[in-house]
Amino acid sequence: MIFNFGDCRLDVERRELRHRGAALHVEPQVFDLLVYLLNNRDRVVTRDDLIGSVWGDRIISDSTLTSRINAARKAIGDTGKSQKLIRTIARKGFRFIEAVEAKPAIGLPSSGAAKAGAGDSDALGSSERRAIAVLPFTNMSDDRQQEYFSDGISEDIISALSKQRWFFVIGRNSSFLYKGKSVDIKNVAEQLGVRYVIEGSVRRAGDRVRITAQLNDAATGGHIWAEHYDRDLVDVFAVQDEITNAIVAAIEPQLYAAESFRARRKPPNSLDAWDLLMRALSHFWRVTKQDNVVAQALLDKSIAIDPDYGKALGVLATSHSFGAHMGWEDMASALPLAERAALAAIQIDSEDPWAHSALGGAYLAMRRIEDSLAEFEVALQLNPNFSLAQGFYGLALIYTGRWREADAAVRRALRLSPRDPFSAIYHGVAAYAQFTGRNYDEAIAASREAIRERGDFVGALRVMTAAAGMAGYAEIGASSLQELHRTQPNISLAWIANQIPWNLDADRDHYLEGLRRAGLT
């Protein structure tokens, strides 16, 4: 959808705002706020409406809302004094009062064109978020009074996806216009200006419920992902929360994969900042030293195109701090880069969970454990379904001796995203938590699962070696130490003592003793 008003033109699909023809840089939240006001210009929008749509019902202060309204006014040439475009209605809310011409954006390419590669040349802004709509889930039950449950699932998915700030999620009011209607996915996508559409159904029979969900690519008409969930309805709201979390956690990596696939099909000279970010992520998820280097090079190119691209800065920070933790990069050079990029990402968008998780990872490697925990907690408050932050939050908890909480955090990461590219890392963190709790057999079992998924994962090899040493399993200790030396040639007791950020001397000594007993020098 394109909105023309005054001297401005706002293109929802391109995520672009222009004033007198010149493109303007607008913070993502401010853009979302403008879109919501424009879509609802026929009425007064309340404070709660804005918080629900733009902030996903998170608690925010009045000053935060006021600052975003002021920023929206400034972006379109309005002021709080004149209120020519956005008017404050005392004790009621806000309304967009300027005359608006609204027209559909240029249609999405046909499936044939998409297969030929034309679908990848859509004119989105170089670093703007791709849009997604969640249609009302269909109630397939005989009892029409069960509408509340199917509607509740849809609304919760909209709210939860809104916390993942890399994709623009169409608000509930717009999506629910299609409730009870037979729809064509491509038409819906064109009308709402989105690339992806989620649809599903709910069928309840007695105390059992089956929920199906499907993620569609509107450009090709293809299905990216589909799943069904069968549950007992012991607690309706608990089931609703569980299914929502499962769907959102499953969809997020599928969206990244779909965008990465699009980017790989584009000619190198046509890649924009978003494409480069998606390519970088596909390498980052492979969790190898070489892929980490490639990811950083792609991220540097993305940031060169858009120096204020917070998403790319957040991933770059995560890549450097993770590389340092894995022993792939020198701590002294990698950590300042990670901290600087993470702080820049937060300055650009203080409510991006990736940015706070990135800073948490940098602080963790810098031995600023309390600061690290605080940043991970902010990331998880912003997006409770962020499995990467959950996993590394667990690691930070271990370094404070809170191994039981750490185990719970990393188990949640695995539950949220059982097919996560980082699941081997999460199993490794679980192994380390059990080692810290002196549960050596459990530590070895979790290490084996991590190594089964990634045979070169040095973190799990370290824990298995230490656990075998403490448990007196000489054969396991010798074989895992041999593999550890092969995978990380620079490994030594001195390296471990200097690089891993323990907060408690007893836990450090315990870990070093296990490695020493296994034969590490």
Structure notes:
This protein has 521 residues and is α+β, with helices and mostly antiparallel strands. Helices cover 56% and strands 13% of the residues. It contains 22 helices and 13 strands. It has helices at residues 28-39, 47-54, 62-75, 111-116, 147-162, 172-175, 185-192, 236-264, 273-284, 289-305, 310-326, 331-348, 353-365, 369-382, 387-399, 403-416, 423-436, 440-453, 458-471, 474-487, 493-499, 505-518, and strands spanning 2-5, 8-11, 16-19, 22-24, 86-89, 93-96, 101-103, 130-134, 138-139, 167-169, 196-205, 208-217, 222-232. Strands 8, 9, 10, 11, 12 and 13 form a six-stranded mixed sheet that branches. It has a five-stranded antiparallel sheet with strand order 4-3-2-1-7, with helices on one face. Strands 5-6 form a two-stranded antiparallel ribbon. Helix 9 packs parallel to helix 11, helix 11 (310-326) packs parallel to helix 13 (353-365) and helix 13 (353-365) runs parallel beside helix 15. The termini are far apart.
Rg on CA atoms, Å: 25 Å
Low-confidence runs:
106-127
Silhouette: globular
Largest sheet: 6 strands, mixed
User: What is the averaged pLDDT score?
Assistant: 84
The proportion of strand residues reads 5-15%
Number of helices: 22
What is the number of E strands? 13
Distance between the termini: 65 Å
Helix content: 55-70%
Structural class: alpha+beta
Short description:
With 521 residues, the chain is of the alpha+beta class.
List the helices and strands and how they pair.
Layout: E1 2-5, E2 8-11, E3 16-19, E4 22-24, H1 28-39, H2 47-54, H3 62-75, E5 86-89, E6 93-96, E7 101-103, H4 111-116, E8 130-134, E9 138-139, H5 147-162, E10 167-169, H6 172-175, H7 185-192, E11 196-205, E12 208-217, E13 222-232, H8 236-264, H9 273-284, H10 289-305, H11 310-326, H12 331-348, H13 353-365, H14 369-382, H15 387-399, H16 403-416, H17 423-436, H18 440-453, H19 458-471, H20 474-487, H21 493-499, H22 505-518
Parallel strand pairs: 8-10, 8-11, 9-11
Antiparallel strand pairs: 1-2, 1-7, 2-3, 3-4, 5-6, 11-12, 12-13
Helix pairs in contact: 1-3, 5-8, 8-9, 9-10, 9-11, 10-11, 11-12, 11-13, 12-13, 13-14, 13-15, 14-15, 15-16, 15-17, 16-17, 17-18, 17-19, 18-19, 19-20, 19-22
